């Protein structure tokens, strides 16, 4: 099993990179989003949940994410949590069954901030992009997919996204084995990463 961590700032293009990998190797890959592992905040009213800082490492249930990765590496199926951006709650009735796969991709902005989680990864990739490009994608995504007004998106960007990026996410780039500049548009870098993954799969199949 090859566990790949793909990190980068909000709106950097991580999803584009992950999609290209998943489309190329299809049945051999499972993607685990960091966002599924936000801590349960059901004890808070909705108004307070909407104001939580989701760009701080303390917002992530790293303990459960690490546990699931170790179980997958041991050949066990795990129940991945389901998290709603609209209610800011983890579902109490629904999970996603994730079975072991030759390639496991862990994707998220904060995954390199946790030393124990980093130690679970065989390859660490940081998707880099200019702040202006990231902001444009964040406005589009949060407005359309998460129902937030542009004013609210900009307020959140200035209040939490930008400072948390500078404090936690940007410094975590130093842990990366591969840095992909220009976000998901750098086809050369993505092809190099894909070549490494396909080489691993070839060796695995040759031993089988």
Largest beta sheet, briefly?
Answer: 5 strands, parallel
What is the rounded distance between the termini?
13 Å
Q: Tell me the strand percentage band.
A: 15-25%
Strand order of the largest sheet: 2-5-1-6-7
CATH architecture assignment name = 3-Layer(aba) Sandwich
| Class inferred from helices and paired strands | alpha/beta
Sum up the overall morphology in one term.
globular
Radius of gyration: 17 Å
Using DSSP, what is the number of strands?
7
Secondary-structure element order, N to C: EHEHHEEEHEHHEH
Mean pLDDT: 85
Low-confidence stretches: none
Break the fold down into its secondary structure elements and pairings:
Blueprint: E1 2-8, H1 14-25, E2 29-33, H2 46-49, H3 62-73, E3 78-84, E4 89-98, E5 103-107, H4 115-118, E6 123-127, H5 131-144, H6 150-169, E7 178-180, H7 187-207
Parallel strand pairs: 1-5, 1-6, 2-5, 6-7
Antiparallel strand pairs: 3-4
Helix pairs in contact: 5-6
Question: Would you kindly provide a written description of the structure presented here, covering whatever features stand out?
Answer:
The protein is an alpha/beta fold and 208 residues long. The chain has one domain (2-207): P-loop containing nucleotide triphosphate hydrolases (Rossmann fold, 3-Layer(aba) Sandwich), CATH 3.40.50. Helices cover 42% and strands 20% of the residues. The protein is built from 7 helices and 7 strands; from the N terminus they run E-H-E-H-H-E-E-E-H-E-H-H-E-H. The chain has helices spanning 14-25, 46-49, 62-73, 115-118, 131-144, 150-169, 187-207, and strands at 2-8, 29-33, 78-84, 89-98, 103-107, 123-127, 178-180. Strands 2-5-1-6-7 form a 5-stranded parallel β-sheet, covered by helices on one side. Strands 3-4 form a two-stranded antiparallel sheet. Strand 3 and strand 4 form a beta hairpin. It is globular and about 55 Å long. The mean pLDDT is 85.
